[in-house]
Amino acid sequence: MEKEDWLLLILFRETLIKPFAMSKRKAKESGGANGECISQVQKILRERFCHHCAAEKLFGIEHQYRHLLDLLKRTTVHGESNSALIIGPRGSGKTALLNRVLKELKEMKQVRGNLLEVRLNGLLQTNDKVALKEITRQLNLENVVGDKVFGSFAENLVFLLEALRKGDRSSSCPVLFVLDEFDLFVHHKNQTLLYNLFDVSQSAQTPVTVIGLTCRQDVLELLEKRVKSRFSHRQIYLMNSFDFKQYITIFKKQLALPAEFPDESFAQQWNTNVQHLSEDKTVQDVLRNLFHYTKDLRSLHLLLMLALSHVTVHHPLITASDLQEASKQYRTDSRANIVHGLSVLEICLMIAMKHLNDVHEGEPFNFQMVYNEFQKFIQRKAHCMYNFEKPVVMKAFEHLLQLELVRPIERPNIRAQREYLLMKLLLDNTQIMDALQVYPNCPVDVKQWAASSLSWL
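Request: output the structure for the sequence above.
Response:
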């Protein structure tokens, strides 16, 4: 090969092949960086939506926040004992408010490491004995208690708190009791746990604060007189009182990436996209439907979580169609979805129950009534439906019972015959009809029977 050919070959390599290889490598590197950004976005937002970290900002409850912070500060700094109830509907931010206050308290120099927390839940600690064991475990006092025998619940609790004392009241380590599902503790025998906790919070012993979280506004009416007299009657109410304009602001703040995000250009692009989404009419319609259905912020978090699941390296930003799809998934009726997997015989039994509900205006029915209704349909449409034996139909009915599409009105009696147990259908007519529309290969006669009027019955 001549010298000119060598030069041409080298020139070709330098001008075409090498830049192509470099651009390919750069694309690969940028793709990796983009993938890292997506992972960070998923991590930050999922933690925010799942409440794994205290909320960065509380919406519309600043007054309640200051009130609770002041209350707990007096306990942790000055050694005062207090008690309070945080009352509000589910999803109104009761736990988020408490966690946010505790997070700020623990960042203070004089509080850090000087507060003991005991968290009890009415769903888990179903009686005072179980609650006392849990208090002992969370205070790490199992070794101190050992095999000691106490005469009463009060004696046991006082011993636990005495074990934590050091010096005078102001230097003792304060204890915060958080009672989640507070209304369930009210049903404990003689309300002994509540009585003793409130009694300790009123006496000059170890500084103790009792915070109850409940969604029942009439919870004070359930307290015994002796318990109520020891409660401070501080009540902090949380209501989702924000309007739709504020709801849109919450939507933007929940989706926005923080200023300290590693890739500033991507964060800016993401936040600009979120701003455009909040102004999009389609997105506003989706959010308005959810807002009118429920103001619960957990519902908004679930919607955003479903939309976030569509974000990938090749689809790095959330779009309006993602939110529409997430809204459809959120509003999916789980019971109606079960109907799609039923056999034709089970579908026929559901339709028979639907007609019985219409005829008897929602009165309970039994298997025999459903079977008779099914037999009427078979006699009219004998050419298209197989006449199943009664035990087979009974088996199909029991399957519907297992799927909880039907439930017994009363607890089954051993002596009562299965055919005559009173039942109630847990689906309404709209759910059944909507499920039939998408049921694969449903016979036309069955659909007509479902849609038929009551005049021929």
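The first helix runs from residue 3 to 49.
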